[in-house]
UniProtKB/TrEMBL annotation:
Keywords: Aminotransferase, Pyridoxal phosphate, Transferase. Belongs to the DegT/DnrJ/EryC1 family. Signal peptide: none annotated. CDD domains: AHBA_syn. Pfam families: DegT_DnrJ_EryC1. GO terms for molecular function: transaminase activity. It comes from the Bacteria. This is DegT/DnrJ/EryC1/StrS family aminotransferase. It comes from Dyadobacter sandarakinus.
Length: 360
């Protein structure tokens, strides 16, 4: 079976050596030496000053909202994984959905300002599939209206925009290091802040908000990660370059083989160094998408409807806000198998199945 993704696993002995060292120290969590080492190496690799390794890509969104003291309405995208909007709801804020750009699938920055009300306190936007939002326009609107900006950069590890890490934009950017991501720590995530004054606050908020047993400063949460997870990150980090190169080779194959007279895909910003996090394809209709998906599954190929459904349509949202572009694309998009080690012969076979089922 060919799944939509497959976890990259490094040399087993390298990882086991770290586990032996953890065993010898008997120090398995609570900001251990491997976690601190991973944070320093990630800061160096990404070119950022403040980074905090946490348990997953959802808890970091919640911590970011809490640390920035965001209340009320948060403008956000309907085209993302549910963790984005769930974090807003979980922190007792109100998600206000703004439709997406039909080319990039990111939040349409030209529509944000008209959605701002006196209750608006922040913008939480996703760099969809690792493709950057219109960060200049978003920062301009945020500055004008004194709004905080959080970027859900779960897909954006290793992406640079105009020579700068995409994770360095906004008041806080968050990242996911889940096992399916370009860089992973099995489970994990990160907070990346551009504000030195947030340094101590974020450090404490991921560890219950207290220092020692006497100084309780914030209503923190348990966002700490373990030495075992940090070890996986330390073993994987040196391989990121080859991981991205291998993923690009798969993407180049799809680019070359798929029928682009019928299919379409997001327009990738020309000013980035991309990480090839996903390979989304948009079909001319949901009917065609289902026909292709069924044909692939019959050949033991499992794509994913990513992202579906459009988040503004979820039943537990406070109110339905129409987002016709997002709702339309969510019905027609599939992410194709993409991972290190996917043979070109399988890429050719997948493309052949897709092309053969585009027409009735």
């Amino acid at each position: 079976m060919i799944n939509v993704t497959k976890t990259f696993l490094p040399d087993q002995e390298q990882y086991i050596q770290y586990i032996r060292e953890i065993w010898d120290r008997g120090y398995v969590t609570n900001n251990g030496p491997l976690l601190q080492e991973l944070e320093e190496k990630l800061k160096s690799y990404l070119g950022v000053d403040h980074l905090y390794f946490c348990t997953n890509g959802t808890i970091v969104l919640q911590i970011a909202i809490k640390a920035l003291e965001i209340k009320g309405d948060v403008i956000t995208t309907p085209f993302s994984y549910c963790a984005t909007s769930n974090a807003i709801l979980w922190e007792n804020c109100n998600p206000v959905f703004v439709d997406i750009d039909p080319d990039t699938f990111n939040i349409n920055a030209s529509l944000i300002e008209q959605a701002i009300t006196p209750a608006t306190t922040a913008i939480l936007a996703t760099h969809v599939y690792g493709n950057p939002c219109d960060v200049e326009r978003i920062e301009e609107v945020a500055a004008k209206h004194k709004l905080k900006v959080i970027y859900d950069a779960a897909h954006a590890f290793g992406v640079t925009y105009k020579g700068r890490s995409l994770l360095s934009f906004g008041d806080i950017s968050t990242c996911s290091f889940h096992a399916t991501k370009v860089f992973h720590t099995i489970e994990g995530g990160a907070l990346i802040s551009n504000h030195p004054e947030l340094d101590r606050k974020l450090h404490l908020m991921r560890a219950f908000g207290h220092q020692g047993d006497e100084h309780y400063l914030y209503a923190g949460i348990n966002g700490k990660n373990s030495e075992m997870h940090a070890a996986m990150g330390l073993v994987n980090l040196p391989h990121v370059g080859e991981i991205i190169a291998a993923r690009r080779e798969v993407c180049d194959g799809y680019d070359r083989l798929l029928n682009w007279e019928i299919l379409s895909r997001p327009v990738i910003n020309p000013h980035i160094e991309y990480n090839y996090a996903y390979y989304p394809v948009v079909f001319p209709s949901e009917e065609v998408m289902f026909r292709v998906m069924d044909a692939l599954k019959a050949e033991d190929v499992v794509p994913r409807r990513y992202f579906y459904p459009s988040l503004n349509t979820l039943s537990f949202m406070p109110a339905y806000i129409p987002c016709p572009v997002s709702e339309d694309i969510a019905l027609r998009v599939l992410s194709l198998p993409l991972y290190v080690g996917l043979p070109q012969a399988d890429v050719e076979r997948i493309a052949g199945i897709i092309n053969a089922n585009l027409l009735p």
